[in-house]
Amino acid sequence: MLRRTLLRFKPTILTAAEALHDVKDGATIALGGFGFCGFPFELLEALNQKSTKQLTLIAGTTSGPEDGTGPLARDGQIAKIITSYVGENSVLSDRLFKGEFTIEFCPMGTLVDRLRAAGAGLPAFYTPTGYGTAVSEGRLPVRFAPGKSVRVAEYSHPRETRQFNGRWCTLEMALPADFAFVRAWKADKRGNLVFRGTTQNFNLASAKAAKVCIAEVEEIVECGELDPKTVHLPGVYVQRLVCPPNIKRVAEFVVERKPGSSTGTGKNAHASRNLIARRAALEIKDGMTLNLGIGIPNMVASYIPPDVDVVLQGENGLLGIGPYPLPEEVDPDITNAGKQTVTMSKSGASLFDSAESFSMIRGGHLDLTMLGALEVSGTGDIASWWVPGKVLKGMGGAMDLVMSGCRIVVLMEHTDKEGKPRVVESCSVPVTGSGVVDMLITELCTFRFVKHKGGINEMWLSELSEGVTVEEVKAKTSATFKVDPNLKTMPRVDPLPT
């Protein structure tokens, strides 16, 4: 249970430096934000200038190399980071690979719920997310060897597991923090916070998990000026307010669409990826609620036929994602889970935090998820988050999505850059989920997975791209598969107009 040390009626209004006066070496700090969206840049800059050391940071994502967590890693202030996604933060990942601090990878939905559990006084919980992967089996990287080898020197330990109603789950511990750094739009002098757009993300759960929450806000109003119905975070969770004169509001990836285009910037110079996206769009049916992952899946939105009405969901807290914005519509506070600028659907949208988003996912409220992958096995395993010795971005929300119970369609190119098969007998890199894939679409063909009782899955070749033969697919696939007797040519939606 959290124990706040001071009774108080109203939060204190301070400068960033004053608000951090008791943030000492060894502190654990939960950070709000999803990429740059809703990230407390001013507080992190003040922390960097304070030169506090041996910090443990908790963050859903790790922001950028030049701002936020990047300077803390550069200056040796981090002892440990708990996150689901290192992503594009080259400064932080470089220091991580040199063994300068430890890391605890955690699926994104699990991470936000560990924070939420801490704030709610719950010591632990069980979740199906991560079972049968490095999370439950104890093979997550914790520390890398010093130098340039990118060799893992320490792995995580196996987790306690338990079966509920025939489904295996992993035990996860609550994640309390000493401090939370969050960013909101408005606050009143009682600490009630209002957020804009998709900035609720990890801010709410982080604030609730901490003994002391420091909120960086754009505006402070008098008590009573906020409509109670608009308050997202009650003031009981907030101890200090900071209102910088020029608060930083920037988008990590500004993506725009051209005037006259209703579909956005979905085109990509890589022809094979467009072919995959055009086939995948046919799996989307009218009335669906779905999640489109980063990469090729994100391109599919541009090919959804205009007469198909669907609702797109993002892990950062938006149900009803619209097209990319026109240049004059760009708002850094409205982004998708890929941290790109978007708009909200004109046919209806709702905003919430990441805990709510993953409740939708884990609770089975989605109809379809499309994900990219590094490899897919012949039994429907998917690997998407780590190539040991090369790429390590983190699992993000993918482990939660593949365990959601909805239909899982994977979109990827059939071979890697060297021509090696990515459709394999068994995955050579750590998996995101085991036996979870329902369909695989590549530029060459479509596979469907037939799932039998007892956990035995079979992969069937059901469609061939025009001009592709079964022999070519076999030559470029190392997994065993069966050929559908009704094998047909792969259909696709029409290409986008030029």
Automatic annotation (TrEMBL):
The active site is at E315. Pathway: Ketone metabolism; succinyl-CoA degradation; acetoacetyl-CoA from succinyl-CoA: step 1/1. Pfam families: CoA_trans. One of its GO terms (biological process) is ketone body catabolic process. The keyword Iron-sulfur does not apply. One of its GO terms (molecular function) is succinyl-CoA:3-oxo-acid CoA-transferase activity. It catalyses: a 3-oxo acid + succinyl-CoA = a 3-oxoacyl-CoA + succinate. Keywords: Mitochondrion, Transferase. Its EC number is 2.8.3.5. InterPro entries: 3-oxoacid_CoA-transf_B, 3-oxoacid_CoA-transferase, CoA_trans_fam_I, CoA_transf_BS, NagB/RpiA_transferase-like. It is an enzyme of class 2 (transferase). Key enzyme for ketone body catabolism. Transfers the CoA moiety from succinate to acetoacetate. Formation of the enzyme-CoA intermediate proceeds via an unstable anhydride species formed between the carboxylate groups of the enzyme and substrate. Belongs to the 3-oxoacid CoA-transferase subunit A family. This is Succinyl-CoA:3-ketoacid-coenzyme A transferase. It comes from Leishmania mexicana (strain MHOM/GT/2001/U1103).
